[in-house]
């Protein structure tokens, strides 16, 4: 099953490098195809995220795409709530955690679809 781990790494790295969160692909690959428990897959994703994000941030800084003044509050609040989320995740069953992640992905897909429709409508309105 090493091929699925390589695929998860490739897809997670590409998506994560673009700044979109590689875990949205990595976690489903690890849980669906490799049958890892949800919390374990999330842990693997977090560890894999560290070197991938380090490389991506260097490239984004080099290209002047990071606004440090605007990110400190987001980082601070994100750190505080990631601690809370990790504590909560440790007390939730695997099946509930899987369902919550699935709901998150479905919500994300719906939101992206709505944004795509809005963009299409805006392009038609400007013609």
Notable features of this structure?
127 residues; mainly alpha; 0% strand; globular
Would you write up a description of this structure?
83% of the residues lie in helices and 0% in strands. The model has no long low-confidence stretch (mean pLDDT 86). By secondary structure, it is mainly alpha-helical. The longest helix is centred in the last third of the chain and has 32 residues, at 94-125. The chain has one domain (2-125).
Mean pLDDT: 86
Query: Count the strands?
Result: 0
Low-confidence stretches: none
CA radius of gyration is: 17 Å
How many domains make up the 3D coordinates?
1
Shape by Cα distribution: globular
- Helix count equals 5
Instruction: Name the structural class.
Output: mainly alpha
**Major beta-sheet overview:** none
Strand content: under 5%
- The CA-CA distance between the termini, in Å, is 51 Å
Helix-strand sequence: HHHHH
Estimated helix fraction: over 70%
Summarize the structure.
The longest helix is centred in the C-terminal third of the chain and has 32 residues, at 94-125. By secondary structure, the chain is mainly alpha-helical. It is 83% helix and 0% strand.
Task: Describe the secondary structure blueprint for this structure.
Layout: H1 2-17, H2 23-33, H3 38-62, H4 68-89, H5 94-125
